[in-house]
Specification:
Structural class: alpha+beta
InterPro entries: DUF5753
Order of helices and strands: EEEEHH
Shape: elongated
Radius of gyration: 16 Å
Strand content: 15-25%
Strand order of the largest sheet: 1-2-3-4
Largest sheet: 4 strands, antiparallel
Domain DUF5753: 19-81
Organism: Salinispora tropica (strain ATCC BAA-916 / DSM 44818 / JCM 13857 / NBRC 105044 / CNB-440)
Distance between the termini: 46 Å
Number of helices: 2
Protein name: DUF5753 domain-containing protein
Helix content: 25-40%
Pfam families: DUF5753
Number of strands: 4
């Protein structure tokens, strides 16, 4: 099972102005043997995280992003509203 995530913070700790979810996309995967891995991407390269502590940290960060995300229908409506507000005059 692979869970593709648009963006989820992959490094750092919570500080003022820090927003989980802006450091690049990642994919969480459960392999047939039950082990979990994460594939992180940035502008230069990708990285596979296999150690349990790293995977658990990234899973927690993904859950924090998912916890504040809008449902898809609401996200689409908000994007369309923003487009209307910023159309060329």
């Amino acid at each position: 099972m692979i869970l593709r995530v648009g963006c989820c913070c992959s490094s750092g700790t919570a500080t003022p102005g820090w927003i989980a979810g802006l450091s690049g996309p990642l994919a969480l995967a459960m392999l047939p043997d039950g082990s979990r891995v994460v594939h992180l991407e940035d502008q230069l390269a990708g990285e596979v995280v296999t150690n349990e502590e790293g995977v658990a940290t990234l899973q927690t960060r993904w859950e924090s992003v998912r916890g504040v995300a809008l449902p898809q229908v609401s996200s689409v409506a908000l994007i369309k509203e923003a487009e209307c507000l910023h159309e060329p005059q």
